[in-house]
Amino acid sequence: MGSAYSRTSLRTHLHAMIFNQSLPNIFLTLNPADIQSPVALYFAGVKLDLDNVQAKQLMDAYKRAEIIASHPVATAKFFHILISNILHTMILGGVVGPHFICISLFGLIMT
User: Fold this and answer.
1) What 3-state class would DSSP assign to 51?
2) How far apart are CA 75 and CA 32, in angstroms?
């Protein structure tokens, strides 16, 4: 998000989109926990059987956080795949309803 100017710019963009497209039908906040995800660890190079993940295969929280922090590309890949699948399945795939048509999306990534 950054500076006050960038927040104001994003807010203006969102207000313009609301004025043009009307109020949003869905407001969704996502906070993926990459440290808890076996998929993120798999992308980081940890050898896991994703079809049968056991709690004993996963390391303690500190070790998982260390692995995720040292592999930013794997974390970005995990985030991209997760968000793409959520948007494709829920919004564009029709889980929200058979007559729901997605006209516009507004996404913001906060780091």
Assistant:
1) coil
2) 11
